[in-house]
Amino acid sequence: MSRVGKNPVEVPGGVEVKVDGNVVTAKGKLGQLSFAATDDVSISLEEGKVVVKPANDSKRARSMWGTARSRVENLVIGVSQGYTKSLEINGVGYRAAVQGNALNLQLGFSHDVNYPIPEGISIVCEKPTAVAVSGIDKQKVGQVAAEIRAYRPPEPYKGKGVKYADEVVLRKEGKKK
């Protein structure tokens, strides 16, 4: 049984949720998102809460129950508060800057890396070594942050590279004499 799926999703003030069959649409101050669930779950709106239940007793229905509930919660949080992922850049001469509609990264390569900023995502560089990726779609924010990190992941000896702000890089000891 899904422990996640049993809890209904609270709809905060300022967020309007519509359920049309298995399509859930959330509209808030930051924008509008929708999610189409599979036929294995049934979604209903009851007393200001979104309730997700399995349509039958199959294994797939029970596994999609918690997934659908989490996706609906991500919609509601996204349109009301939004999501932000913070990245840190460590290394001598490593820096980032937003130039127009692209993120310019200097990561120790012979060339600069220009990452085009996708639609619906905003990237802010408070410092040359700090990048904040934000938007209303949790999946898209995480994907953009992962793509930026993939250009130069942190290495274990000096910790140089792009890492998440809350990521801990396990350091290794260098070679001994």
Structure overview:
- This protein has 177 residues and is an alpha+beta fold.
- The chain folds into two domains: 3-80, Ribosomal protein L6 (Outer Surface Protein A, domain 3, Alpha-Beta Complex); 83-164, Outer Surface Protein A, domain 3.
- The chain has three helices and 13 strands; from the N terminus they run αββββββαββββββαβ.
- It has helices spanning 3-6, 59-80, 138-150; strands spanning 9-10, 16-20, 23-28, 31-36, 41-46, 49-54, 83-90, 95-99, 102-106, 113-116, 121-127, 130-135, 161-164.
- It has a four-stranded antiparallel β-sheet, covered by helices on one side. A three-stranded antiparallel β-sheet has the order 1-6-5. A three-stranded antiparallel β-sheet has the order 2-3-4, with helices on one face.
- β3 and β4 (31-36) form a beta hairpin.
- The protein is elongated, with a radius of gyration of 21 Å.
- The chain starts with a helix and ends in a 13-residue tail after the last strand.
- Residues 11-82, 91-164 form the Large ribosomal subunit protein uL6 alpha-beta domain.
Give a short synopsis of this structure.
It comes from Kiloniella laminariae. With 177 residues, this protein is of the alpha+beta class.
